[in-house]
Amino acid sequence: MALFVQKYGGTSVGTAECIEAVAEKVCGFRNKGHDVVVVVSAMSGETNRLIDLANSITEEPAPREMDVLVSTGEQVTIALLAMALQKRGCEARSYTGGQVSILTDSMHTKARIRKIDEQGMRDDLDAGRVIVVAGFQGVDENGNITTLGRGGSDTTAVALAAALKADECQIYTDVDGVYTTDPRVVDSARRLERITFEEMMEMASLGSKVLQIRAVEFAGKYNVPLRVLSSFQEGEGTLITLEENIAMEQPVVSGIAFNRDEAKVTISGVPDTPGSALRILKPVSDANIDVDMIVQNVGEDNRTAFTFTVHRNDFNRAKDVLQRVSDELGAREVSGDTKIAKVSIVGVGMRSHVGVATTMFEALSAEGINIQMISTSEIKISVVINEKYLELAVRALHSAFELEKPAVEETM
Ligand code: ASP
Ligand code: MG
């Protein structure tokens, strides 16, 4: 018999009926003899509602009070789910993050888990109870309630699975797995049977919203098998696992991620001297602006240009910072563009294949799509293009890498 940690997201517990359906599912696992720890999110929309309430009182709510507030969403769900389980004759107990001893640091609204004391949970499991835990929350060493950042229930589930050495951490959500790309953009997008932790991390950080990035990172670090499945339909979902657990015939590219959240800024006519990159980028990071891709052009007449991308929300601030830098450095001009999109191909198979970039660039060029910036890592190639060609680019790449065809392992 197995031990599963199962996480049900906001839409899966969005109404009393949904909570009853989750209870049915959990009872089903219990009846097969499995041990189950359930982690739940707040009912869908609830966290946003609480944040809006806070913002209606003050523009700058204290992070500590914010955590006291938003953690209540999950507390509602655990109690209701425990009741629904008990009604079905399934012994269950609900616990807040603090009660199951999820100890975090004190970084309110984005705390990190430090330690979990799993003995209490073991005792409950030994007594035959289902444990229902509020996701997204913990306590710091002084007993203050903390939360783990938006989407943090995924991380709670993975952390509990790691602490309990569960057989699998199952994330039940409103999609039935991880897809080769967003099915709303490409009809023939396919659910992946398996994907590596590394690939999933890239997909998540590049814009695929299925799982919280930190949860995937945590799962990879502690080698917790992680499965994404639908709460609403039967299926195997997608298993996120180590590379060695995936068939030999790895596809070169596993998925295509994209995002429209970035903007690019350029400072041109910068004197091409040692330290200019530092003098440009340091004030940007001092302003707490995250920079993603960076390109420096080859100098001409001892002048060069720098282009980098930032989150669109930071675009105006980034331009202001650059304008200041430009005046100081005697650069020629600062310009920017918010109508860009980033498209990335991701796959561990890239490590052992050459010509992946060529295939990517051919596919884009065949559609007449101009590439503005390129960045690569061992398992990913990202390009920045004009936003209006985003969907076309994603479709072209999906077919260039034959992602609509099932991988070899699935046909065996
Ligand atoms: N309820 C929290 C949120 O909406 C945590 C979660 O759902 O994972 O971000
Ligand atoms: Mg969520």
TrEMBL record:
EC number(s) stated in the UniProt entry for this protein: 2.7.2.4
Q: Name one Pfam family in it.
A: ACT
Q: In which pathway does it act?
A: Amino-acid biosynthesis; L-methionine biosynthesis via de novo pathway; L-homoserine from L-aspartate: step 1/3; Amino-acid biosynthesis; L-threonine biosynthesis; L-threonine from L-aspartate: step 1/5; Amino-acid biosynthesis; L-lysine biosynthesis via DAP pathway; (S)-tetrahydrodipicolinate from L-aspartate: step 1/4
User: What is the reaction catalyzed?
Assistant: L-aspartate + ATP = 4-phospho-L-aspartate + ADP
Biological processes, Gene Ontology terms: homoserine biosynthetic process; lysine biosynthetic process via diaminopimelate; threonine biosynthetic process
Q: What are the GO cellular component annotations?
A: cytosol
- Provide the binding site for substrate: 47, 74
Query: What CDD domains does the entry give?
Result: AAK_AKii-LysC-BS, ACT_AK-LysC-DapG-like_2, ACT_AKii-LysC-BS-like_1
Q: Which SUPFAM superfamilies match?
A: ACT-like (SSF55021), Carbamate kinase-like (SSF53633)
Specify the domain of life of the species encoding this protein.
Bacteria
Q: Name one GO molecular function term.
A: ATP binding
Keywords tagged on the record: Amino-acid biosynthesis, ATP-binding, Kinase, Lysine biosynthesis, Nucleotide-binding, Transferase
List each copy of the ACT domain by range.
Answer: 265-339, 345-412
Alphabetized PANTHER family for the sequence:
ASPARTATE KINASE, ASPARTOKINASE
By sequence similarity, the record places it as follows:
Belongs to the aspartokinase family.
What name appears for this protein in its UniProt entry? Aspartokinase
Q: Please name the source species.
A: Marinobacter adhaerens
For this protein's source organism, the top of the classification is: Bacteria, Pseudomonadati, Pseudomonadota, Gammaproteobacteria, Pseudomonadales
